[in-house]
Amino acid sequence: MAKAVYQRNQKVWVESVGAWAVIERVVPIWARGFEEPVRVTYDVGLGREFHAHELKPEQDGADTLAEDGTHWRLLRARNKWQTPEDCAHHPYPGSYPVVVTDANDWGGWRVPGAEYDRDPSKIEAQARLIASAPRLLAIARKLLEIVDEAPQDAPPVIRALATDAGNIERYLREIPAVDDPAAGVAASVQAA
Q: Please, are residues 117 and 88 in contact by the beta-carbon 8 Å criterion?
Protein backbone atom coordinates (compact mmCIF):
# COMPACT_ATOMS: atom_id res chain seq x y z
CA MET A 1 0.00 0.00 0.00
CA ALA A 2 1.17 3.52 -0.72
CA LYS A 3 0.66 6.69 1.22
CA ALA A 4 1.03 10.24 -0.07
CA VAL A 5 4.37 11.70 0.99
CA TYR A 6 3.70 15.22 -0.33
CA GLN A 7 0.63 17.46 -0.39
CA ARG A 8 -0.98 19.60 -3.04
CA ASN A 9 0.59 23.09 -3.33
CA GLN A 10 3.78 21.91 -1.61
CA LYS A 11 7.01 23.18 -3.15
CA VAL A 12 9.42 20.37 -4.10
CA TRP A 13 12.74 19.94 -5.86
CA VAL A 14 12.37 17.70 -8.92
CA GLU A 15 15.64 15.78 -8.95
CA SER A 16 15.52 14.45 -12.53
CA VAL A 17 14.71 17.88 -14.01
CA GLY A 18 16.82 19.95 -11.64
CA ALA A 19 14.12 22.51 -10.91
CA TRP A 20 11.71 23.61 -8.21
CA ALA A 21 8.03 22.91 -8.79
CA VAL A 22 4.75 23.01 -6.91
CA ILE A 23 2.64 19.86 -6.65
CA GLU A 24 -0.52 20.53 -8.63
CA ARG A 25 -2.20 17.16 -8.07
CA VAL A 26 -1.64 14.08 -5.94
CA VAL A 27 -2.55 11.10 -8.14
CA PRO A 28 -3.38 7.85 -6.31
CA ILE A 29 -3.32 4.66 -8.41
CA TRP A 30 -6.03 2.26 -7.26
CA ALA A 31 -6.35 -1.47 -7.86
CA ARG A 32 -9.44 -3.59 -7.44
CA GLY A 33 -9.61 -5.38 -4.11
CA PHE A 34 -7.38 -2.93 -2.23
CA GLU A 35 -8.69 -0.40 0.25
CA GLU A 36 -5.73 1.95 -0.22
CA PRO A 37 -3.89 3.10 -3.36
CA VAL A 38 -1.15 0.78 -4.56
CA ARG A 39 0.96 3.71 -5.79
CA VAL A 40 0.91 7.49 -5.55
CA THR A 41 2.40 9.84 -8.12
CA TYR A 42 2.57 13.62 -8.25
CA ASP A 43 1.71 16.02 -11.07
CA VAL A 44 3.96 19.08 -10.84
CA GLY A 45 3.12 20.56 -14.23
CA LEU A 46 6.28 19.40 -16.01
CA GLY A 47 4.66 17.08 -18.54
CA ARG A 48 4.66 13.81 -16.63
CA GLU A 49 3.89 12.46 -13.18
CA PHE A 50 6.73 11.89 -10.71
CA HIS A 51 7.20 9.33 -7.93
CA ALA A 52 8.02 10.43 -4.37
CA HIS A 53 11.66 9.28 -4.65
CA GLU A 54 12.17 11.75 -7.54
CA LEU A 55 11.12 14.71 -5.38
CA LYS A 56 12.62 16.42 -2.35
CA PRO A 57 10.68 18.72 -0.02
CA GLU A 58 11.60 22.38 0.30
CA GLN A 59 12.06 22.06 4.07
CA ASP A 60 14.25 18.96 3.76
CA GLY A 61 16.95 20.49 5.94
CA ALA A 62 14.44 21.88 8.44
CA ASP A 63 13.80 18.56 10.17
CA THR A 64 15.39 18.80 13.59
CA LEU A 65 15.73 16.53 16.55
CA ALA A 66 14.40 17.81 19.82
CA GLU A 67 16.04 16.83 23.10
CA ASP A 68 13.77 13.83 23.46
CA GLY A 69 14.75 12.54 20.00
CA THR A 70 11.57 13.55 18.16
CA HIS A 71 11.56 15.47 14.91
CA TRP A 72 10.38 19.05 14.73
CA ARG A 73 9.29 19.68 11.18
CA LEU A 74 7.24 22.02 9.09
CA LEU A 75 4.25 20.48 7.33
CA ARG A 76 1.49 22.03 5.27
CA ALA A 77 -2.17 21.53 6.14
CA ARG A 78 -5.04 22.04 3.71
CA ASN A 79 -7.05 25.20 4.21
CA LYS A 80 -10.62 23.93 4.72
CA TRP A 81 -12.34 27.31 4.61
CA GLN A 82 -10.78 28.93 1.53
CA THR A 83 -10.16 27.62 -1.95
CA PRO A 84 -6.72 28.26 -3.50
CA GLU A 85 -8.36 30.86 -5.75
CA ASP A 86 -9.68 32.79 -2.71
CA CYS A 87 -6.22 33.00 -1.16
CA ALA A 88 -3.97 33.50 -4.18
CA HIS A 89 -2.01 36.14 -2.21
CA HIS A 90 -0.72 33.43 0.20
CA PRO A 91 2.79 32.04 -0.37
CA TYR A 92 1.27 28.53 -0.74
CA PRO A 93 -2.39 29.01 -1.78
CA GLY A 94 -4.75 26.47 -0.26
CA SER A 95 -2.54 25.50 2.67
CA TYR A 96 -1.00 26.86 5.86
CA PRO A 97 2.07 25.87 7.91
CA VAL A 98 1.93 23.48 10.84
CA VAL A 99 4.97 22.80 13.03
CA VAL A 100 4.82 19.22 14.27
CA THR A 101 6.85 18.22 17.32
CA ASP A 102 5.62 14.63 17.64
CA ALA A 103 6.61 11.55 15.66
CA ASN A 104 2.92 10.84 14.90
CA ASP A 105 2.40 14.17 13.05
CA TRP A 106 0.33 15.72 15.81
CA GLY A 107 1.16 18.04 18.63
CA GLY A 108 3.00 21.26 18.06
CA TRP A 109 2.09 24.67 16.72
CA ARG A 110 -0.81 25.72 14.55
CA VAL A 111 -2.40 29.06 13.78
CA PRO A 112 -6.06 29.98 13.22
CA GLY A 113 -6.96 30.46 9.56
CA ALA A 114 -8.13 34.05 10.05
CA GLU A 115 -4.82 34.99 11.65
CA TYR A 116 -2.87 33.32 8.83
CA ASP A 117 -4.97 35.16 6.25
CA ARG A 118 -4.19 38.51 7.93
CA ASP A 119 -0.40 38.19 7.47
CA PRO A 120 0.70 34.93 5.78
CA SER A 121 4.36 35.99 5.38
CA LYS A 122 4.68 36.65 9.12
CA ILE A 123 3.12 33.29 10.02
CA GLU A 124 5.37 31.45 7.52
CA ALA A 125 8.43 33.09 9.13
CA GLN A 126 7.20 32.15 12.62
CA ALA A 127 6.68 28.54 11.53
CA ARG A 128 10.23 28.31 10.15
CA LEU A 129 11.64 29.87 13.33
CA ILE A 130 9.76 27.45 15.59
CA ALA A 131 10.80 24.44 13.47
CA SER A 132 14.43 25.62 13.70
CA ALA A 133 14.33 26.24 17.47
CA PRO A 134 16.02 22.94 18.47
CA ARG A 135 18.93 23.62 16.11
CA LEU A 136 19.27 27.21 17.35
CA LEU A 137 19.28 25.93 20.94
CA ALA A 138 22.01 23.43 20.04
CA ILE A 139 24.11 26.28 18.59
CA ALA A 140 23.62 28.34 21.76
CA ARG A 141 24.65 25.39 23.92
CA LYS A 142 27.75 24.80 21.80
CA LEU A 143 28.66 28.49 22.16
CA LEU A 144 28.30 28.19 25.94
CA GLU A 145 30.48 25.08 25.92
CA ILE A 146 33.24 26.76 23.91
CA VAL A 147 33.31 29.87 26.13
CA ASP A 148 33.16 27.78 29.35
CA GLU A 149 36.30 25.86 28.27
CA ALA A 150 38.43 29.00 28.07
CA PRO A 151 36.54 32.18 29.03
CA GLN A 152 39.72 34.28 29.09
CA ASP A 153 40.47 33.36 25.44
CA ALA A 154 37.04 34.38 24.14
CA PRO A 155 36.60 37.90 22.77
CA PRO A 156 34.29 40.16 24.81
CA VAL A 157 31.58 40.04 22.13
CA ILE A 158 31.52 36.23 22.23
CA ARG A 159 31.44 36.25 26.04
CA ALA A 160 28.43 38.62 25.91
CA LEU A 161 26.68 36.29 23.45
CA ALA A 162 27.44 33.33 25.71
CA THR A 163 25.96 35.22 28.69
CA ASP A 164 22.77 35.88 26.69
CA ALA A 165 22.66 32.23 25.63
CA GLY A 166 23.07 31.15 29.26
CA ASN A 167 20.18 33.41 30.32
CA ILE A 168 17.97 31.90 27.63
CA GLU A 169 19.03 28.38 28.66
CA ARG A 170 18.11 29.10 32.30
CA TYR A 171 14.76 30.55 31.22
CA LEU A 172 13.99 27.39 29.20
CA ARG A 173 14.90 25.13 32.12
CA GLU A 174 12.87 27.10 34.70
CA ILE A 175 9.71 25.48 35.97
CA PRO A 176 7.07 28.17 36.46
CA ALA A 177 5.58 28.50 39.92
CA VAL A 178 2.06 27.18 40.33
CA ASP A 179 -0.57 29.83 40.99
CA ASP A 180 -2.20 28.00 43.87
CA PRO A 181 -3.93 30.22 46.43
CA ALA A 182 -3.56 27.52 49.11
CA ALA A 183 0.19 27.29 48.49
CA GLY A 184 0.49 31.07 48.78
CA VAL A 185 -1.32 31.05 52.10
CA ALA A 186 0.86 28.21 53.40
CA ALA A 187 4.02 30.08 52.35
CA SER A 188 2.92 33.29 54.04
CA VAL A 189 2.03 31.40 57.28
CA GLN A 190 5.49 29.78 57.31
CA ALA A 191 7.16 33.16 56.74
CA ALA A 192 5.34 34.66 59.75
A: no
